[in-house]
Amino acid sequence: MATNALEREEAGIIPSKSELAYQWIKERIAKGDYSSGYRLVLSGLAKELEVSVVPVREAIRRLEAEGLVTFERNVGAQVVMLDPAEYLYTMQALSVIEGVATSLAAPHITTRDIEHARATNLRMRECLDHFDPHRFTELNKEFHGALFAKCPNPHILDLVFRGWSRLRVLRNSTFAFVPGRTRDSINEHDQLLQIIEAKAGPIEIELAVRAHRMATLNAFLAYQAERNNPSSPSAEANMRN
Fold first, then answer.
1. What DSSP line would sit under the chain, residue for residue?
2. Which residues, listed in sequence order, are joined to residue 72 by a DSSP beta bridge?
3. Cβ neighbours around 240 below 10 Å, total
4. Does residue 138 surpass a pLDDT of 70?
């Protein structure tokens, strides 16, 4: 008969610290508190749970085995994309709607708006030295907001905001999955600003925004395909780590 807490824990009468950590993290993933791409920092979780890092690491391994968490080199543990199909549909729709919104907004974009967008893009570039996917995504939203916010069509603008809100629910940051996409994204931002400053036609601006959005989607789809192919070099490397 179990006579102390340790024996009761070993006998399965009370949950172990690892089990409690596992249930706690899993519940927050299910509720959306930890959305797709959310970085699971072991030391931070351990402090919040008031346990050592060891049971948190064991919990993360269980969640990884269940397909809820993935581990990426130089990134660490993060929540997987829970609904890639919904992400695909949202990004496809947003690429079209935001492209139209930006093209309609272009004649109303001021020099000050351009300066704000360019300064935001510079902060994104500086963010690469100590990459934080969530911070990068917030700056990315700020950059694009500076360009589409003056769309004179309130119905189109409403659809853009809805698309961004849906993305926020679906994932914490796409760039957490494809960090290699960041530099190309920043360079494409510079190109967008150049064509807007050059007073390019609405079709050229719309297509540029659409191509930019789709490039991020395609980078994620390539990442998904690679992870789903066990024979790929990256997948084999992740299995060894």
1. ---SHHHHHHTTSS--HHHHHHHHHHHHHHHTSS-BT-B--HHHHHHHHTS-HHHHHHHHHHHHHTTSEEEETTTEEEE--S-HHHHHHHHHHHHHHHHHHHHHHGGG--HHHHHHHHHHHHHHHHHGGG--HHHHHHHHHHHHHHHHTT-S-HHHHHHHHHHHHHHHHHBS-GGGT-GGGHHHHHHHHHHHHHHHHTT--HHHHHHHHHHHHHHHHHHHHHHHHHHT-TTSHHHHHHHH-
2. 76
3. 6
4. yes
Q: What percent of the chain has pLDDT over 70?
A: 88
Q: Which CATH number fits domain 10-79: 3.30.70.60, 1.10.10.10, 1.20.1250.20, 3.60.15.10?
A: 1.10.10.10
Query: Are the C-beta atoms of residues 152 and 104 closer than 8 Å to each other?
Result: yes
Q: What is the pLDDT of residues 181-236, one digit of tens each?
A: 999 999 999 999 999 999 999 999 999 999 999 999 999 999 888 877 756 554 44
* Residues 121, 125, 127, 133, CA torsion sign: positive
**CATH of 84-227 among 3.20.110.10, 1.10.260.40, 1.20.120.530, 3.20.20.70:** 1.20.120.530
Q: Name, in order, each residue with C-beta under 8 angstroms of 129's C-beta and a sequence gap of 6 or more.
A: none
Nearest to 38 by CA among 142, 165, 132, 163: 132
pTM greater than 0.70 (yes/no): yes
